[in-house]
Amino acid sequence: MLKSENLYKPIYFETADNGSAGLAEIYPEDKYNIVRALQRKGHIVGMTGDGVNDAAALRQAEVGIAVKDATDVAKGAASGVLTVEGLEPIVDMIKVGRMIYQRVVTWVLNKLVKTFQIVVFVVLAYLLTGLFSVSIFSMVLYLFLTDFVTLSLSTDRVRYSRRPDTWDVNWLVGLGILVGVLVVVESMLLLYVGFRFFEFGHDINRLHTYVFSYLVFSGLFNVLIVRERGHFWHSKPSLALLASVLLDLVLVVAISLSGVYSLKALTIAPLAFSGSWALVASLCVNDPIKVLLVSHLHHSK
């Protein structure tokens, strides 16, 4: 048992820091100081409170929680407010918070991979072939179709982490760019097949349709791998996400086979190759490499 007069003596505070000590005869200002002392030792601190004298400590803690009947001052200082009696809802609140964090990470990774793929691929394709592999219309249509999938990520089923999460921008950017490099290489190989075997170099409008179909296929399948830090089969996507992916697949097949505006219709062979290549590259190549990258980048932190 540690008393307030001994709180600032290092030898006594080590006792309070071992997870089995209690704190007695604590004044309101001591609560804030205890939170600060634990944070200086590298801990992520959570605290519950109900009164005005708890407000400073609630605001300072990483997770300050005001109980159901807390004062307005305590509720205003806290990160969260319990709406029912007891402390059990705290566990649910932490789980939901970590799930939201995983959804945000998925959105960021998806955005990084898509942006890197489009920008680098289009530039490289132009430098190597002298042709624009996408048209303005196909890009607008691509963004319109994939935005529905991006929005549905907010409803996705995710696995919450077992340990507290912290933002690591370098980790996010590094993983996004490395996966993006893979996707660009795969896109360039698809473009080579289009020129070499399907002779799209002589029909720019069909080339636009061919590349458009692949970008959509690739974007949809890559969503399924970036939403999961492990292998893509470790968790099921939400019904809304799955439905939006399937709907986009149907639409891109219909558009590619029938043609729309400047996008000329494709035959079955190039469209089937585009979809199959995107599926195999995303789920059989990108996914296992992503798992290795996640593990390596986590260990190198």
Automatic annotation (TrEMBL):
PANTHER family: CALCIUM-TRANSPORTING ATPASE (PTHR42861). This is Cation-transporting P-type ATPase C-terminal domain-containing protein. Its main location: membrane. The chain crosses the membrane at residues 171-195, 207-226, 238-261. It comes from Candidatus Marsarchaeota G2 archaeon ECH_B_2. It comes from the Archaea. It is found in: Membrane. Keywords: Membrane, Transmembrane, Transmembrane helix. One of its GO terms (molecular function) is ATP hydrolysis activity. Coiled coil: none annotated. GO terms for cellular component: membrane.
